């Protein structure tokens, strides 16, 4: 299969984990004789440094022509001053918006070999297998006005706005996903306070008539954040507004033991998607070969599955990650008493070895 993949490494640990992703994909293409064409583009701080724009037109063109996009992470202290008007994160928000990637899927499950890396008790997390569906192109991140106001700029405004179609399409996507899983959908909102949440709730209730086989519940976001660490196994699919989904997914990552474990897929109605780990550029460990590459590598598996329909190849990556974790290898972000702590590149080497072994057997 021939596919064009845009590679956007970004900043901090982005390029380190991206290198791992590309090497894993090369191993997969060698095993299965696929023709993956990798084309690199600038985004984030790296793009600001090079051309003063966090999302240059050349990168957007590249993404528009590609079958899928892989993104590392953007941002870092160099571009962080509150006075800065051009910011790396704007590149990420714009690419999501320009490409219409409204549904961000963030799966979270407990990995048996990592159970003791979590700060939560084994019995709380061991059966967790949930999926956060985060609305990605609306809500507080994109509402206008968003600005400082007045001569002294002593008033700041952000706006939470949704139109009904934006809610319908992401909720419908979440229902479809729930139908293929354990058929439970939890819609998370703040309907006791926010008008947009009340509209959100109405949409969920109306669309639920199309999915009589899916059990629906509504949960307020403050309570949901508590339930997520109290009894996380109760959740199957969670659908929620952009900012709520951002926050809840970082919280949920601790079920796995590290933010570095979580992959994500940002999708629209056709097969094109953007795949990135949930974590950021981790400036505290950047450039040290310490980053956990698994969130990025598991995002590659999501790309193979969702954008290319290569389910077997995706499964081999996921199985290889499990094998390597079962063999005790892990990066330093996972606080485990046992096993072997390895670097980013060593972790990737182990995964590639496992992919090759898997293929040699079959
Ligand atoms: P972060 O996710 O970068 O890091 C939070 C903590 O988790 C840090 O201690 C970091 O070392 C650790 N961590 C994250 N990913 C890891 C990995 N793969 N392996 C090992 N440890 C990992 O969040 P932050 O520190 O709040 O933000 C840093 C920068 O990243 C900011 O500029 C922020 O805007 C940006 N950011 C970007 C994205 C993205 O590009 N999608 C996501 C979140 C944050
Ligand atoms: C994420 C990040 C981004 C977000 C930032 C960097 C803009 O936190 O992808 O989760 O808030 O969406
Ligand atoms: Mn985030």
From TrEMBL:
Localisation: Cytoplasm
Protein name per UniProt: 3-isopropylmalate dehydrogenase
Cofactor detail note: Binds 1 Mg(2+) or Mn(2+) ion per subunit.
InterPro entries listed in its UniProt record: IsoCit/isopropylmalate_DH_CS, IsoPropMal-DH-like_dom, Isopropylmalate_DH
Chain residues that bind Mg(2+): 222, 246, 250
Pathway it works in: Amino-acid biosynthesis; L-leucine biosynthesis; L-leucine from 3-methyl-2-oxobutanoate: step 3/4
UniProt-listed Enzyme Commission number(s): 1.1.1.85
Positions annotated to bind NAD(+): 76-89, 280-292
Top EC class for this record: oxidoreductase
Domain Isopropylmalate dehydrogenase-like: 4-351
Keywords recorded for this protein, A-Z: Amino-acid biosynthesis, Branched-chain amino acid biosynthesis, Cytoplasm, Leucine biosynthesis, Magnesium, Manganese, Metal-binding, NAD, Oxidoreductase
Keyword Metal-binding: yes
Chief location: cytoplasm
Function of the protein: Catalyzes the oxidation of 3-carboxy-2-hydroxy-4-methylpentanoate (3-isopropylmalate) to 3-carboxy-4-methyl-2-oxopentanoate. The product decarboxylates to 4-methyl-2 oxopentanoate.
Residues under site feature: Important for catalysis: 141, 190
Cofactor or coenzyme needed: Mn(2+); Mg(2+)
């Amino acid at each position: 299969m021939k596919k064009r993949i845009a590679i956007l490494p970004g900043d901090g640990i982005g390029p380190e984990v991206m290198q791992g992703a590309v090497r894993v994909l090369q191993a997969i293409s060698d095993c299965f004789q696929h023709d993956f064409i990798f084309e690199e583009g600038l985004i984030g701080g790296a793009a600001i440094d090079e051309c003063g724009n966090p999302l240059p037109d050349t990168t957007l063109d590249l993404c528009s022509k590609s079958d899928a996009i892989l993104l590392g992470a953007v941002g870092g202290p160099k571009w962080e001053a509150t006075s800065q008007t051009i910011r790396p994160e704007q590149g990420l928000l714009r690419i999501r918006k320009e490409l219409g990637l409204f549904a961000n899927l963030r799966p979270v499950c407990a990995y048996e070999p990592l159970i003791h890396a979590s700060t939560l008790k084994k019995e709380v997390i061991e059966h967790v297998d949930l999926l956060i569906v985060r609305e990605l192109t609306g809500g507080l991140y994109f509402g206008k006005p968003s600005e400082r106001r007045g001569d002294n700029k002593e008033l700041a405004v952000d706006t939470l706005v949704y139109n009904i179609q934006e809610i319908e399409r992401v909720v419908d996507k979440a229902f479809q996903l729930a139908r293929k899983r354990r058929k439970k959908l939890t819609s998370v909102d703040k309907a006791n306070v926010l008008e947009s949440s009340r509209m959100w709730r109405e949409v969920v209730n109306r669309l639920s008539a199309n999915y009589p086989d899916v059990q629906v519940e509504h949960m307020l976001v403050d309570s949901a954040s508590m339930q997520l660490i109290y009894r996380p196994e109760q959740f199957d699919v969670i659908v929620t507004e952009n900012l709520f989904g951002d926050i809840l997914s970082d919280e949920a990552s601790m079920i796995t033991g590290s933010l570095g474990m979580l992959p994500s897929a940002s999708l629209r109605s056709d097969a094109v998607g953007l795949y990135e780990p949930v974590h950021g550029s981790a400036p505290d460990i950047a450039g040290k070969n310490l980053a956990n590459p698994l969130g990025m590598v598991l995002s590659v598996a999501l790309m193979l599955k969702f954008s290319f329909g290569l389910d077997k190849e995706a499964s081999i990556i996921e199985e290889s990650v499990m094998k390597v974790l079962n063999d005790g290898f892990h990066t330093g972000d996972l606080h485990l008493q046992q096993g072997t702590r390895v670097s980013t590149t060593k972790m990737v080497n182990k995964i590639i070895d496992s992919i090759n072994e898997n293929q040699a057997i079959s």
